Amino acid sequence: MDSHWDLLDTALTGMPELQVIPDAVSQNKTMVEIPETIPQTVFDSPFWEDYTNRCIACGRCNFVCPTCTCFTMQDIFYTDNGKAGERRRVWASCQVDGYTDMAGGHAFREDKGQRMRFKVMHKINDYKKRFGNQMCIGCGRCDDVCPEYISFSNCINKLNTLVKEEN
Ligand code: SF4
Ligand code: SF4
């Protein structure tokens, strides 16, 4: 393999040395306030019905999330030999139909508002209780891709207001 570092050295000879300080994101434009403790009444609140009406269960918010890790398995049978194939690990989303389906046909969360509640609570409440850190890193990717303009950050701030009212 040819290396051309010598050309770069030649080109830079005699140039003044500059100090470069990388600029990194230190703060989001949208600020969220996450409630410390969430009372049970909030779980049962009509607050979530807004998402039942707006969410179309596409799952995009999950698929772009760097902290979502759910997956499912799919069996793919080869077309040239139906007795052979492979089992593949594929993305899953807690927002799409079928995610909570059980053998026998029962589904735990058919309502899209309940799915939103599950996702939100997992990100800002359950995970922290178990591991001590917030799961959501505030990247905003879910806000950007939602075709229904559902904002996770707005949801958390509205939830925080609701928690204050309940306490
Ligand atoms: S803002 Fe949080 S929930 Fe949304 S994509 Fe980023 S990490 Fe996931
Ligand atoms: S991207 Fe929006 S519409 Fe799609 S599942 Fe997520 S919240 Fe619902």
Architecture overview:
By secondary structure, this protein is mainly alpha-helical. The chain has a domain at 31-69 and 109-166: Orthogonal Bundle (Fumarate Reductase Iron-sulfur Protein, Chain B, domain 2), CATH 1.10.1060. Helices cover 37% and strands 8% of the residues. It is built from seven helices and two strands, in the order ααααββααα. The chain has helices spanning 5-12, 40-43, 49-54, 60-63, 112-131, 141-145, 152-166; strands at residues 71-77, 85-91. A two-stranded antiparallel sheet has the order 1-2. The longest helix is centred in the last third of the chain and has 20 residues, at 112-131. The radius of gyration is 23 Å and the shape is flat. It starts with a helix and ends with a helix. The mean pLDDT is 93. Residues 55-61, 95, 146-148, 150 line the site of one iron/sulfur cluster. One iron/sulfur cluster (SF4) is lined by residues 55-61, 95, 146-148, 150.
Describe the SSE topology.
Elements: H1 5-12, H2 40-43, H3 49-54, H4 60-63, E1 71-77, E2 85-91, H5 112-131, H6 141-145, H7 152-166
Antiparallel strand pairs: 1-2
The structure holds iron/sulfur cluster (2 copies).
Residues 55-61, 95, 146-148, 150 line the site of one iron/sulfur cluster.
Give a quick rundown of the structure.
By secondary structure, the protein is mostly helical. 37% of the residues lie in helices and 8% in strands.
In DSSP terms (H or I, runs of 4 or more residues), the helix count works out at 7
Reading the helices and strands in chain order gives HHHHEEHHH
In the predicted model, the low-confidence regions spanning at least 5 consecutive residues are none
- Measured distance between first and last alpha carbons: 67 Å
**Tertiary shape:** flat
Question: Number of DSSP strands?
Answer: 2
CATH topology of the domain at 31-69 and 109-166: Fumarate Reductase Iron-sulfur Protein, Chain B, domain 2
Helix content: 25-40%
What small molecules does the structure contain? Answer: iron/sulfur cluster
Strand order of the largest sheet: 1-2
Fraction of residues in β-strands? 5-15%
**Structural class, from helix and strand content?**
mainly alpha
CATH class of the domain at 31-69 and 109-166: Mainly Alpha
- Rg from alpha-carbon coordinates: 23 Å
The second-level CATH architecture of the domain at 31-69 and 109-166 is: Orthogonal Bundle
Mean pLDDT score, rounded? 93
Q: Major beta sheet, specifics?
A: 2 strands, antiparallel
